Each structure stands twice: as C-alpha cells, then as structure tokens.
C-alpha cells in the first residue's frame, strides 16, 4: 500500500510542487490537498488511512498551530510535519512541543524535504538545522525523545562509549535488558547504531 498524504497550504503552486517532490519517495503516492483549516479538518475526519500530513502554519481561516493541536489530539498516531516560511526557533520548538514530528522551512531544497519525510515515515523526528544550532533546538529535541527514565540513563551511558556489559553492570540489570533499552533509544533518535546516536546526541546538546 502506498503513501496517502494530506497537503495543507493555500498556495496551489506549492501544493503541486510538493506532490512532485513526494513522488520520489513513493511513485504510487496518493495526495489529498486542502487550502484551509476547515477543508483539512473535513478531509482528516473522513480519511482513516492517511499516512502523513504536511501542514502550513499560515492559513486563511485559522492558525495552523491550532489545526496541529486538533489533529494530534484526535489522531495521535498520524505523523504531522510543519512546512512553513517561518525560521523562528521559538515557533519551531512550539510546533514540536505541540506534537509535530518535523518542521521543514519552505526555503529547504527538494532533497531536504524528501529526507525529512523519509525520516518521519521511518519513525524519526526531523529537526531543521536552524533549530539544531540553537538552545531551543537542544531543548526541543530532548523533549521529543519520549524516553523512560531508565532509557535516558541507558542513553547517557551509551553515548559515553562504554559497552553493553558495562552499562548493565552500572544499572544492575542484564545485558539482554540493556539491548532492549538501546533498541528503543535508537528508534526514538531515528538512528541505526551507536555512532549515529552519538552524532545525534552532540547535535541535541547532550555532548559538548
């Protein structure tokens, strides 16, 4: 089954361009388009098999952030990415804290958009470079990890470079348990291995 995406923006040209860009991810992509919050709400209430929502913040009939809050409350498992002309770190963080799984500035290249969507569809969170380089970005990414207290402990020991056995000894549990926690941590980070986890941790401010 292909991707079914809802694109919400009041600019027809951008909607058409996004459809073309997303075809690179899935040639069988199904696209639904809405130019207003009202139209988007109607679509999402009837389409139960949506894979993704790309949402602009500046819509003619209401604020996109309000629509984001509505969508995340009613459909908490539906991935929503903000696509906005704003590059304000505070606004980016607000969207991520409100449930968005990514924030893509409209100045981004087609390649960046494709990679961001792929990351989110794989279960990750896309944080733009403008936010990663700011304190707000560090705070936003940390708040979006959704790790348990024990998983946070494992994460901090993992990026310190010690082995699974040493982590297990530190936390007084089995290596099998540690492997389970590490799998959850890597999934939350949207990475595949320890090296990538360390790089992500550096970007998020865990490693100075």
Descriptors for this entry?
single chain; 208 residues; alpha/beta; Rossmann fold; Arc Repressor Mutant, subunit A; 2 domains; five-stranded parallel β-sheet; 11 helices; 53% helix
Detailed description of the structure:
- This protein is of the alpha/beta class and 208 residues long.
- It folds into two domains: 4-142, Rossmann fold (3-Layer(aba) Sandwich); 145-204, Winged helix-like DNA-binding domain superfamily/Winged helix DNA-binding domain (Arc Repressor Mutant, subunit A).
- The chain is built from eleven helices and five strands; from the N terminus they run E-H-E-H-E-H-E-H-E-H-H-H-H-H-H-H.
- It has helices at residues 12-22, 37-46, 64-74, 89-97, 110-121, 129-132, 135-144, 149-158, 164-171, 175-189, 194-204; strands at residues 4-8, 30-34, 52-55, 80-84, 102-105.
- A five-stranded parallel beta sheet has the order 2-1-3-4-5, with helices on both faces.
- Helix 3 links the parallel strand 3 and strand 4 (80-84).
- Helix 4 packs parallel to helix 7 (135-144) and helix 8 (149-158) crosses helix 10.
- It is elongated, with a radius of gyration of 18 Å.
- The mean pLDDT is 84.
